[in-house]
Sequence to fold (83 residues):
Amino acid sequence: MQCMKFARDAYIPIDKIEYMVSYNSSAVKRKIRRLKAEGLAEVIDYTYGQKTNAVIFLTTGKILLTNNTVDKLVERMEKGNIF
Fold:
């Protein structure tokens, strides 16, 4: 199983990633707030108090918030910066 570092001291199996989106869109922000408020998804914040830049949706239904950008995450996957 290959894992990618998506936040400080946090790794995720690549095969569990459904998709990643930027957190800049107000539609994405609304969706995250709604899912969290209604209890429809487990939202886990890995920003360590920094600005949220990307949202990772997992095949398990969980949602991860990270301070890394989508471009940085894709770059890590393309460069083979996986463990």
User: Anything to note?
Assistant: Residues 26-38 form the longest helix (13 residues). The radius of gyration is 12 Å.
